[in-house]
């Protein structure tokens, strides 16, 4: 997570609506993994930032995520992996309008 990201931007980046983002962030805050505050530029906006504990969890999970992706794609030769990922991206982009929020990765 980028430091000091507002909930609306975070929702767009991961493709979930702001109500669900708020709920997830509330639960992460209760676990001490995220700190939320009102934005200086707009009192209606909420800014989120990982705590040191949250950063550690994210870093620890990154390796496991990479290993899971490697296992999933292992049956495909390298050229097919690239084609598969490109096809998945096309499907997401082509169907983006069907979701409750628009997925807009950075």
Summarize the structure.
By secondary structure, this protein is mostly helical. The protein is about 60% helix and about 10% strand. The model has no long low-confidence stretch (mean pLDDT about 85).
Figure out the total of helices.
4
Mean pLDDT: 87
N-to-C SSE string, H for helix and E for strand: EHHEEHH
Distance between the termini: 11 Å
- The gyration radius over C-alpha positions equals 17 Å
Q: What does it look like?
A:
This protein has 106 residues and is mostly helical. The N and C termini lie close together (11 Å). The chain has a three-stranded antiparallel β-sheet. 58% of the residues lie in helices and 11% in strands. The mean pLDDT is 87. The longest helix has 22 residues, at 52-73. The chain has helices at 7-14, 18-30, 52-73, 78-95, and strands spanning 5-6, 34-38, 46-50. Helix 1 (7-14) crosses helix 2. It is flat.
What attributes does this structure have?
106 residues; mainly alpha; three-stranded antiparallel β-sheet; 4 helices; 58% helix; flat
């Amino acid at each position: 997570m980028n430091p000091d990201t507002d909930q609306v931007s975070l929702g767009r980046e991961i493709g979930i609506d702001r109500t669900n983002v708020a709920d997830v962030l509330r639960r992460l805050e209760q676990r001490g993994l995220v700190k939320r505050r009102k934005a200086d530029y707009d009192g209606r906006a909420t800014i989120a930032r990982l705590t040191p504990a949250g950063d550690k969890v994210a870093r620890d999970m990154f390796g496991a995520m990479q290993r899971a992706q490697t296992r999933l794609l292992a049956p495909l030769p390298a050229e097919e992996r690239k084609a598969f990922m490109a096809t998945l991206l096309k499907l997401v982009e082509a169907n983006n309008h069907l979701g409750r929020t628009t997925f807009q990765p950075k």
